[in-house]
Amino acid sequence: MDTPQIIAPSRAPSSGVVHSNTRHTSRFTVVGNHLTQHNELSLTAIGLAAHIQSLPAGARIGIKHLAERFPESETRIAAALRELEAHGYLKRTRERLPSGRVVTRTVSYNQPVAGAAPAGAAEPQPEPRPRPQPRQQPVPQPRTRPQQNQQQRQQPQPQPQPRPVRPVPQAPAPGTPAPEAPDPAPLPRPETDKLAPASEPVSIPVPTRPSLPRPQVHDLDRHRTALDLLADLRRHEPRLLLGEADIHRLAPAVAAWFERDAHPDAVRRTLVADLPEPLTRPAGLIAHRLTTLLPPPLPTAAPAEEAAPRHDPLQNCDGCDRAFRAPEPGHCRECRTDLKEAA
To answer: How distant is the alpha carbon of residue 30 from its chain centre?
Structure first.
């Protein structure tokens, strides 16, 4: 028959995927179906394994680096890496470089490694080292009665020491000086002077905290001024923000400063100056400064000095022209005597 035959094309499947393949000649990676069609790996793990196998040697595949490259979070990427490691497609080991830096070595397998831990299996824990058993001391055998008696016979018996005889003091001959009495032997120290053993803890007394100063006389005006000064500190230093309870507790101490003639501006400068950094307890700092920097009371005024004795001014005598002291000018004592005798 010279009639041409027409071969009908193969019919496409009615449902499912249809492949349109093109042969790759460069920039391709061979991935086995055992990975792409794995029954236990998640889709994220399969895609991550294919991406890792397509990378060149030495490429960085850290969790943070992959999270910057893909939209998945670090948690999902870390879980996918653990899946690949559990099924033998990935192996991660930590190594220390000669410089001391610790790095992670990652090996990617295009075929799963035999003997990999199943999914969800816990990492093997190192076996604990066996503790060394204490060496047993040999138990001494009890001695028999004859042996003990024989050893007691062999040991020399201690000889009793004679008691020292005290010399009887003799009376000194008449006219000879009496001998000097020897110095008394030092008395033994009491037990309290002995040092405590090193094993016993030595208790150190804790110094007591001084109490806040209080005024001698309660003055309502001083107390109100102290309350206003403490509440106003936060305007000069925002870190000195005090609670109402702390203000009422510290007000008597500020009133004690006022009682010692301290000006409110001087008290404010003392509390605000040279604050530490950081300031965690402003109330405790103010209480410490009010206690330790309390000025002494002013000394009482010295009594007025007695008036010096008043001396009469110097005058020139009208008779002898000699200087003398007198309230008014005239004659000195000698000239007045001569005048009286002449009269």
So the answer is: 60
Identify whether the C-beta of residue 316 lies closer than 8 Å to the C-beta of residue 323: yes
172 token code pair: 């000194």
* Residue 334: per-residue pLDDT: 80
The size of the chain, in residues, is: 343
Burial of residue 91, with CB atoms counted within 10 A of its CB: 0-12 exposed, 13-18 middle, 19 or more buried: middle
71 prior amide bond cis, ω within 30: no
When pLDDT is averaged across residues 66-83 and rounded to a whole number, the result is 91
Q: Got the DSSP string for 262-330? A: --HHHHHHHHHSS--SS---HHHHHHHHHHHTPPPPPPPPPPPPPPPPP-PPEEE-TTT--EEE-SSSS
Bridge partners of 105, per DSSP, are: 93
User: What is the pLDDT, as a whole number, of residue 58?
Assistant: 85
* CB-side neighbour CA atoms (13 Å) of 143: 8
Residue 82's SS3 state is helix
Higher pLDDT, 155 or 76: 76
Handedness of CA 85, 86, 87, 88 (dihedral sign): positive
Distance CA 270, CA 267 (A): 5
Q: 255: buried, middle or exposed (CB in 10 Å: 19+, 13-18, 0-12)? A: buried
Better-scored residue on pLDDT, 269 or 7: 269
- 33-108 has which CATH code? 1.10.10
Mean pLDDT in residue range 95-113:
87
**pLDDT average, residue stretch 51-77:** 88
pLDDT value at residue 2: 60
Domain ranges of the chain: 33-108, 220-273+281-292, 315-343
- CA 72 vs CA 43, 92, 106: distances in Å: 12, 21, 20
User: Residue 93 forms beta bridges with which residues?
Assistant: 105
